[in-house]
Write a structure and sequence with these properties.
The chain is mostly helical and 474 residues long. It has 20 helices and no strands. The protein has helices at residues 6-11, 20-27, 30-60, 66-74, 77-103, 107-134, 136-142, 150-161, 164-179, 183-207, 212-234, 252-287, 289-325, 329-356, 358-365, 369-382, 389-401, 405-426, 434-459, 461-473. Helix 10 (183-207) runs antiparallel to helix 11 (212-234) and helix 13 (289-325) packs across helix 16 (369-382). The longest helix has 37 residues, at 289-325.
């Protein structure tokens, strides 16, 4: 099967003899291909989360002040999540578009998309750095900080946002590496930085006595190394798509479709930021600092447990996008079904662990007995519907991989904006235990969102794939 035109091969000076990296997306058995792409992506997602997760673990165990310091770090999470969301807006919107273009044999167009995304990420990083540095204190108070916790959250955030450009290049551009089929390279991108972060954290926090400032500095330095690795690869000889100076600009005709597709993962991540604010402020009102501290642990457990699902869907994305562009619907459908099965199986595993061993998970982040006991109770409520969440991820991310911006946008908004955030404020009106009601909003919203997402997917995208597959066989 001929994927690239001769012109495209000539435009890729470093590509010579490497079209097999694209061919495998079209010809390798889907199950084997998904494993080869998903395992590195899953490892990359887990390791990427360790950047902030390791900070929370070390900070939560600082003698004497660990509990308050962890809560202070917790109120910075909305900002950290928002920075990642803007990276997803550009990177996760551009990478599928580039993969679809590659599937059509249009590598020149794919490189234009890459160049525009590099430029856009740099501009967004500059704006976010200035805004969050200057207005860090009022933002943290609005996000649920108290007089006791602001002294930990403020220094961490101001140091962290100075490295926003590194975070955005690492997250946004790494998607272009994975979308070309270089999942192993994408995994190494985050493993290098996270490994460095794990080493530097205890040195800066405890060895140099820098506390939360040391945790933030370790994270920024680690992300800088990862960003350097990504840019070096995308300007090197092994990549199929190259960052070229002539493409470093903002072209509305190119970025319009990218942002339209990227708005779904942007909303998924940015609403995590808004969601953290809603949870933190409500729990501060009804339960105080201990409830906010428990929420920090719950959010960490949820993020960590869901990362393999995100990694699996990222491994699926280049297969679906490339073969959708190449009009091979049977491979698209098979990739989705395997992904759905794996996501659901993993979701049930996560649910079982969180129901049976909540104390073990809580003690990873805190050695305070009161915080651990409080978190055990809250976790069984908060994670009650996590067993079905795999279907949400599989269906929603397949919409993104297919380039269905409208569908993915609606589903991204449904779970959090339409259901969960209102539930946080509505349910306490019907329960005497207000804190219980706030935590209950999560499983109620998850159940409604999953039912809607699965129904919409099989009534639209699945039927579309079936019709195109039948048409292709005629």
């Amino acid at each position: 099967m001929k994927i690239n035109s001769q012109t495209d091969r000539e435009e890729q000076p470093g590509q010579g003899g490497r079209p097999e990296s694209q061919n495998k997306l079209a010809v390798m058995p889907v199950g084997k291909l998904l494993v080869s792409l998903a395992l590195p992506a899953i490892a990359a997602q887990i390791v990427n989360l360790l950047y902030n997760m390791v900070d929370r673990i070390y900070i939560g165990h600082i003698p004497g002040v660990g509990s308050l310091a962890l809560t202070g770090l917790g109120v910075t999470l909305p900002v950290i999540t928002l920075v990642a969301a803007f990276a997803a807006l550009v990177g996760f919107g551009g990478a599928p578009r580039a993969a679809i273009a590659m599937g059509k044999g249009e590598n020149g167009t794919a490189e234009q998309i890459l160049g525009n995304c590099v430029f856009s990420l740099g501009c967004l990083a500059a704006v976010l750095t200035v805004v969050f540095f200057l207005f860090a204190e009022p933002i943290l108070y609005a996000f649920g900080a108290s007089e006791d916790t602001i002294i930990y959250g403020l220094p961490y955030l101001r140091i962290y946002v100075c490295g926003s450009i590194c975070v955005m290049f690492t997250t946004g551009l790494n998607a272009f590496i994975t979308s070309q089929g270089f999942a192993g390279i994408g995994m190494r991108t985050v493993m290098i930085g996270a490994g460095l972060n794990i080493v530097l954290d205890p040195i800066f926090i405890f060895g140099f006595g820098m506390g939360v400032r040391g945790a933030a500095l370790a994270t920024v330095l680690s992300q800088a190394v990862s960003a350097f690795w990504v840019i070096r690869f995308l300007t090197g000889k092994k990549t199929l798509l190259h960052i070229k100076k002539k493409n470093l600009r903002f072209v509305p005709g190119i970025m319009g479709p990218v942002l339209a597709l990227g708005i779904s993962p942007f909303i998924m991540q940015s609403t995590e930021s808004l969601l953290s604010v809603c949870f933190n402020t409500s729990l501060q009102r009804y339960g105080g600092d201990i409830a906010v501290g428990a929420m920090t642990i719950l959010a960490s457990v949820m993020q960590f447990s869901m990362m393999p699902l995100q990694g699996l869907s990222q491994g699926m994305q280049p297969i679906v996008s490339f073969n959708y562009g190449a009009k091979n619907m049977e491979r698209v459908r098979k990739a989705f079904l395997i992904t759905l099965t794996c996501c659901l199986g993993y979701s049930f595993l996560v649910w079982g662990v969180s129901m049976l061993l909540p104390g073990v998970l809580a003690r990873v982040f805190s050695s305070d007995a009161a915080t651990v006991e409080y978190t055990q109770w809250a976790m069984r409520i908060y994670m009650a519907a996590s067993c079905i969440f795999g279907a949400q991820i599989a269906c929603q991310q397949t919409f993104v991989a297919l380039g269905k911006a409208v569908h993915s946008l609606f589903l991204a908004a449904l779970r959090k904006l339409i259901l969960l955030i209102p539930m946080i404020y509505i349910l306490p009106n019907f329960f005497q235990d207000k804190v219980f009601a706030v935590f209950l909003a999560e499983p109620v919203s998850d159940t409604l969102a999953v039912c809607t997402t699965v129904t919409m997917f099989f009534c639209t995208a699945w039927q579309m794939m079936r019709r195109k597959a039948e048409k292709g066989q005629e």
